[in-house]
Amino acid sequence: MARAYQVTHRTDYRYERDVTASYGQLHLLPRDFDRQRRRSATVTLTPGPDVLSSRQDFFGNSVSYFEIHEPHRRLTVTAQSVVEVADGARDVTLLGGRVWEDAVAAVAGGSLSEHLEASQFVLGSPLAAPADRYRAYALESFPADRPLLECVESLCARIHADFRYKPGSTSVATPLAQVFRRRRGVCQDFAHVGIACLRSVGLPARYVSGYLETLPAPGRPKLTGVDGSHAWFSVLIPGAGWLDVDPTNDQFANDRYVVTAFGRDYGDVPPLGGVIYTQGKTEALKVAVDVVPIG
């Protein structure tokens, strides 16, 4: 049975001087696919945009584009949606007994019905390229003839144990090799590590961005604005589909995860990016996210 959520993502920029024009692109609205259905979705901006349009990108994600031409010192972007999410991990895990070498052979031989889609996710990308160091790390979880699902579960657990979650220790510009060497970062870094490891052994893996419903401590109310953007990775289980894996929390993604977009790595699907024209700098940036279960 699917769970329904109301998701609100509010980003507030304050600038020290007038911004004469803003141009931006957003990956903030949940996407529709087999395990998720979007009931409604809106993007609003203050000040009101001169141009606001939407489209689907190459990967089928919802993308919003805006232009603001009037001078402003504050920009607020609010994305609101209602979405239904099913627990896709339950179905995929039933078919995870295939050994990992057979899965690699199926991908390499082009025998998968998903081959065209899978091929673009087994190749290297700017932020998650295969390398010998990642293959060596992955092979500790991928011994000969081990079921693919067990291998992925082991890799997820090892990333969770070996890498320290430390906000502020990396940025979107931090090379993956540095993250791997220093063994610390945030969710997008851990997703890139997992992707690079899987690609290095010949398996298709993709980057997933979205939200995770946080649960309050027992007996405590759920606070407003404390949820956040999240990132994890997916691996293709031949014959079963894509399995979403969260190394930050050492678990398979379930119906508490809302997907906004997926691509080869973070660079394909940043939540918000663009260009501003100003002589000043950003004085403050505040992000508030709420993922609220509804009936």
Your description of this structure?
By secondary structure, this protein is α+β, with helices and mostly antiparallel strands. It folds into two domains: 108 residues, Immunoglobulin-like (Sandwich), CATH 2.60.40.2250; 179 residues, C8orf32 fold. The chain has a five-stranded antiparallel sheet. A hairpin with a 5-residue loop joins strand 4 and strand 5. Helix 4 packs across helix 7. The longest helix has 15 residues. The radius of gyration is 20 Å and the shape is globular. The two termini are 12 Å apart.
Beta-strand content estimate: 35-45%
Largest sheet: 5 strands, antiparallel
Q: Within the CATH hierarchy, at the fold level, what is the topology of the largest domain? A: C8orf32 fold
CATH level-1 class of the largest domain: Alpha Beta
Q: What integer value in Å does the Rg equal?
A: 20 Å
Helicity, as a percent range? 10-25%
Please state the second-level CATH architecture of the largest domain. Roll
Topology of this structure?
Layout: E1 3-19, E2 21-26, E3 36-46, E4 51-56, E5 62-68, E6 72-85, H1 89-93, H2 100-109, H3 115-122, H4 132-139, H5 148-162, E7 164-165, H6 176-182, E8 184-185, H7 187-200, E9 205-212, E10 229-237, E11 241-246, E12 251-252, E13 257-263, E14 272-277, E15 282-294
Parallel strand pairs: 7-8
Antiparallel strand pairs: 1-6, 1-15, 2-5, 2-14, 3-6, 4-5, 9-10, 9-13, 10-11, 11-12
Helix pairs in contact: 4-7
Please describe the structure with a list of short key phrases separated by commas or semicolons.
295 residues; alpha+beta; Immunoglobulin-like; C8orf32 fold; 5-stranded antiparallel beta sheet; 4-stranded antiparallel beta sheet; 7 helices; 15 strands; 23% helix; 39% strand
